[in-house]
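#onboarding

Welcome to the new folks! Below is a worked example of what a typical request in this channel looks like: someone posts a single protein sequence, and someone else replies with the predicted structure as tokens. Don't worry about understanding the tokens yet, we'll cover that in week two.

Example request:
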Amino acid sequence: MCGNELFLFGGALRTPDGLDFLPQKEAYAFHLMDGMWRELRPMPESMFSGASVAVDERRILLAGGVTSIPVSLSPNGTQRLQVSSRCLMYDTVSGDYTSVEPLLEGVGDQGLVVVGSQVYCIAGEQIR
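Example response:
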């Protein structure tokens, strides 16, 4: 939540064989008063199972999540998933994503919370 909107970043679709997931770049906002969704500028990279938190009335921090390694970089030539330490700040007014200091290590399925002027990343898991 940021202002009167609920934001949704990324997500995953199952692969045709049903054995894996494909991270997505799409982003949307749901306006609580209007009851309408609007499409946002896509994220710079596909991601699912990341965390986000509003740091003020304008900006949302996106942290970590699961991304895919391009097939060309995978040792066996197939898609592989990896957790990311990447953090982005999304500006709800301009629609811009800005890279900010990454997490100390990659993590997915974590929580974020703001306490005063600090953001805490809680729990999560890694793909090993």
